[in-house]
């Protein structure tokens, strides 16, 4: 394998996943991953451009950022690319009025969206709101549409909380896809449009950017398909089998964000 | 298309789906589909062998049969092929100890099964018990197994209740398959073993048998792949688009069970 110096040559911008990289969510909000608070601070003091790119769809950006600030992170709402605002833009552009299968904590993101007489379903990481009743309602809305549109905020299989692995929105997206015979439109990682919108805000080309995430498919595979490089951290939902994934090979595996930032700053183009 | 006489030639045994053919389930138990009580009675008075072949996994066979008897049907528990008893046999044969994600109404079917220290998950139509908490628990059990085994009682997309279409177990099976990266073993229609076990009890060869159901894929397609003929009724979950299904074509479409029985008795081999 190439040296770190070769692998990191020409990097000008860093995209950071949040859950499983910065912190592990859980009861009471969650806990920072050791070293990550300092790593973010060091990265932001460097000449590298930094943006946070998350599939978090259980909390609004405001609430997520508030939580991370309380945990000690230097982060502001404007630095975060998240799927709910991206979905709202799509809804407006296409005149879609969603039935929302979402967590109450993210409902405020959809405040300005017309949800009367729905002509599509938007599904997000609803956690306990993924009741049979709520799933069945979303299913019935889709089945009554002539051209059913299902928009999913991410398609993650699971994420890591302090208490263990938790089912993510992708599982419920698959349930509705199968029941209704539709294919969901994914807003969030690994959708190329989503990564590209983050790069555009940073003003960095894909070949100059590197993604750091804990999801071998959603973060690493998705970023690489956009022409970016990607590192996988051995925190969050990382599992040892990820390093032998049949389809995706990261540009590097690191123990945590702190190690990734060490390497990046060490091999920064002078 | 061949005449009914040709299509029904040599039929000696009839397999009847229950939900959507005999009755529509719903609040208070459900209601018989008009003409079905009499149709079953006429069929059982004929020289044809009759067996009920259901994917019902929300109630035990005893409770289902009790309900149908109260609705007026001539049916006994021994005449019903259902997935829970078939699953119990598989669990015993393979030394599997299930974590059960099922409805309380069917729990008694698993009374004699060891559920300590689970090494597999059995999922059935759990309805309101498909909470996020219960789904997450099943997911976590599977993720902790070295060789995860997921057994699904049927894989229906949805069924019809008097109040409307309802999500069936198949949707939740797909959710767990995706989240865990496993493929479920389906016990119930359209599994060939399941149809064959029903035929064996009847003592009828596949080419002498006809399935009558409301599910174009699970009932009609499944039975045909076993060498049986199959009629679809325009009751239950039937939708007009089923008659133009891209992959499955029934040997006939009839308005309801009463019409199917009329045709069968009219064209019975003398």
TrEMBL record, chains A, B:
<dbReference type="GO" id="GO:0005829">
    <property type="term" value="C:cytosol"/>
</dbReference>
<keyword id="KW-0378">Hydrolase</keyword>
<dbReference type="InterPro" id="IPR036412">
    <property type="entry name" value="HAD-like_sf"/>
</dbReference>
<dbReference type="GO" id="GO:0016791">
    <property type="term" value="F:phosphatase activity"/>
</dbReference>
<dbReference type="InterPro" id="IPR006355">
    <property type="entry name" value="LHPP/HDHD2"/>
</dbReference>
<dbReference type="InterPro" id="IPR006357">
    <property type="entry name" value="HAD-SF_hydro_IIA"/>
</dbReference>
<comment type="function">
    <text>Phosphatase that hydrolyzes imidodiphosphate, 3-phosphohistidine and 6-phospholysine. Has broad substrate specificity and can also hydrolyze inorganic diphosphate, but with lower efficiency.</text>
</comment>
<keyword id="KW-0460">Magnesium</keyword>
<dbReference type="GO" id="GO:0006796">
    <property type="term" value="P:phosphate-containing compound metabolic process"/>
</dbReference>
<keyword id="KW-0539">Nucleus</keyword>
<dbReference type="GO" id="GO:0016607">
    <property type="term" value="C:nuclear speck"/>
</dbReference>
<protein>
    <recommendedName>
        <fullName>Phospholysine phosphohistidine inorganic pyrophosphate phosphatase</fullName>
        <ecNumber>3.6.1.1</ecNumber>
    </recommendedName>
</protein>
<dbReference type="GO" id="GO:0046872">
    <property type="term" value="F:metal ion binding"/>
</dbReference>
<comment type="similarity">
    <text>Belongs to the HAD-like hydrolase superfamily.</text>
</comment>
<keyword id="KW-0963">Cytoplasm</keyword>
<dbReference type="GO" id="GO:0042803">
    <property type="term" value="F:protein homodimerization activity"/>
</dbReference>
<dbReference type="Pfam" id="PF13344">
    <property type="entry name" value="Hydrolase_6"/>
</dbReference>
<dbReference type="InterPro" id="IPR023214">
    <property type="entry name" value="HAD_sf"/>
</dbReference>
<keyword id="KW-0479">Metal-binding</keyword>
<dbReference type="Pfam" id="PF13242">
    <property type="entry name" value="Hydrolase_like"/>
</dbReference>
<dbReference type="GO" id="GO:0004427">
    <property type="term" value="F:inorganic diphosphate phosphatase activity"/>
</dbReference>
């Amino acid at each position: 394998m190439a040296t770190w110096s070769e692998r990191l040559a020409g990097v000008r911008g860093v995209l950071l996943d949040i859950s499983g990289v910065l912190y592990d969510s859980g009861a009471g909000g969650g806990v920072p991953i050791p070293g990550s608070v300092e790593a973010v601070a060091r990265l932001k003091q460097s000449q590298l451009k930094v943006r946070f790119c998350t599939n978090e769809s259980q909390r609004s950006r405001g609430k997520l950022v508030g939580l991370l600030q309380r945990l000690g992170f230097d982060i502001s709402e404007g630095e975060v690319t998240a799927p709910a605002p991206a979905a709202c833009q799509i809804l407006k552009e296409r005149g879609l009025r969603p039935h929302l299968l979402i967590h109450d904590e993210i409902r405020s993101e959809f405040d300005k969206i017309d949800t009367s007489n729905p002509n599509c379903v938007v599904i997000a990481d609803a956690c306990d709101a993924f009741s049979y009743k709520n799933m069945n309602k979303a299913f019935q809305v889709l089945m009554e549409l002539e051209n059913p549109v299902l928009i999913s905020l991410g398609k993650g299989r699971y994420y890591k909380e302090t208490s263990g692995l938790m089912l993510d929105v992708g599982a419920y997206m698959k349930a509705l896809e199968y029941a209704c015979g539709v294919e969901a439109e994914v807003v969030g990682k690994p959708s190329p449009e989503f990564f590209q919108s983050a790069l555009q805000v940073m003003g960095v080309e894909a070949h100059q950017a590197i993604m750091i995430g804990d999801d071998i498919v959603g973060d690493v595979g998705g970023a690489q398909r956009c022409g970016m490089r990607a590192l996988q951290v051995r925190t969050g939902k990382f599992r040892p089998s990820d390093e032998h994934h049949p389809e995706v090979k990261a540009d590097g595996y690191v123990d945590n964000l702190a190690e990734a930032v060490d390497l990046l700053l060490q091999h920064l183009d002078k």
